[in-house]
Amino acid sequence: xxxxxxxxxxxxxxxxxxxxxxxxxxxxxxxxxxxxxxxxxxxxxxxxxxxxxxxxxxxxxxxxxxxxxxxxxxxxxxxxxxxxxxxxxxxxxxxxxxxxxxxxxxxxxxxx
Amino acid sequence: xxxxxxxxxxxxxxxxxxxxxxxxxxxxxxxxxxxxxxxxxxxxxxxxxxxxxxxxxxxxxxxxxxxxxxxxxxxxxxxxxxxxxxxxxxxxxxxxxxxxxxxxxxxxxxx
Lengths: 112, 111
What we know:
The complex is a heterodimer of chains A (112) and B (111).
Chain A: E1 3-6, E2 11-14, E3 19-21, E4 23-26, E5 32-38, E6 44-50, E7 56-59, E8 62-65, E9 75-77, E10 86-93, E11 101-102, E12 106-111
Parallel strand pairs in A: 2-12
Antiparallel strand pairs in A: 1-4, 3-9, 5-6, 5-10, 7-8, 8-9, 10-11, 10-12
Chain B: E1 4-7, E2 10-13, E3 19-25, E4 31-37, E5 43-50, E6 53-57, E7 64-70, E8 73-78, E9 87-94, E10 101-102, E11 106-110
Parallel strand pairs in B: 2-11
Antiparallel strand pairs in B: 1-3, 3-8, 4-5, 4-9, 5-6, 7-8, 9-10, 9-11
């Protein structure tokens, strides 16, 4: 079945550092790919998405590129802030299946 | 003007009790979902409804029964609660298989 693998956390960075959170997937067909973020005590918010190969999703300084050849959708940000501390989930949705398959989440901790 | 809302936000109850969680969306979406997030933050789909019809049931115990009275509501009823049911339950909605929008979650604690 479809699956998503994310790097283990926590990822601990200082403010203004460069962030990469790795995400790879296994899926049949042509899934859509997503990054969701969960701030402490809150629900999930869509951060960005890409629906086809080579698409780049971007939002709030975060970006991720859908790489079909490496089945990856790595999340990057050039300069993190303390307010970016949260749990980040990579997810896929395969055509017609109408469900999200999530990775295990990666906790990001940014210190001043 | 909350898009996807859930009640209650917190639910503490004893083993063996029956409880319900309610979800409402005002986005005009035709598909609604329930997800369970365990203590390790892992998220897994439980159910999906499209236009009030069940389309996904991911091997969830039959103590869990979703009910969709209309397109804007999807409630989750749980019978005979067990310790292992303690989790955060998220409702979500989407227009067909487009982007899903999540509610704030309901933290269920079974004692």
